[in-house]
Amino acid sequence: MATINLTAEEFEKTITDNDIVILDFWAEWCGPCKQFSPIFESVSEKHPDIVFAKVNVEEQQELAGLFQVRSIPTLVFMREKIVVFSNPGLLPEANLEEGIKGLRELDMEQVHKDLAEAQNNDQA
């Protein structure tokens, strides 16, 4: 699957309907974003089961705020609607592939358990 342009209106459906979503927060004027764009596109072609979504921070300020994006590009890896990794800055292709491998290998049962435990501790 090639990359998609994600809007706030499509966000909930996108993360609900897809197990793995990788978000690339970018802006038109950002040099590193332009350098990263072909890498993101190339890697997306190798993983058709993953949604690779580009989020223009100037057009989608609500999403950028939701993810507390402070610098761009910023990559966010989500699995089962949970943010499992966020990285500001340009990633080389090998590092992006490594991140995807790690994302696929995550024990999501354990992640859900740890998240529930952390939420319970916060409420205590």
TrEMBL record:
Keyword RNA-binding assigned: no
GO MF terms held by the record: protein-disulfide reductase activity
Pfam families: Thioredoxin
Keyword field: Disulfide bond, Redox-active center
NCBIfam families to which the protein is assigned, alphabetical: thioredoxin (TIGR01068)
InterPro entries referenced in this protein's UniProt entry, alphabetically: Thioredoxin (IPR005746), Thioredoxin-like_sf (IPR036249), Thioredoxin_CS (IPR017937), Thioredoxin_domain (IPR013766)
Protein name in the entry: Thioredoxin
Ranges where the Thioredoxin domain occurs: 2-105
SUPFAM superfamilies per UniProt: Thioredoxin-like
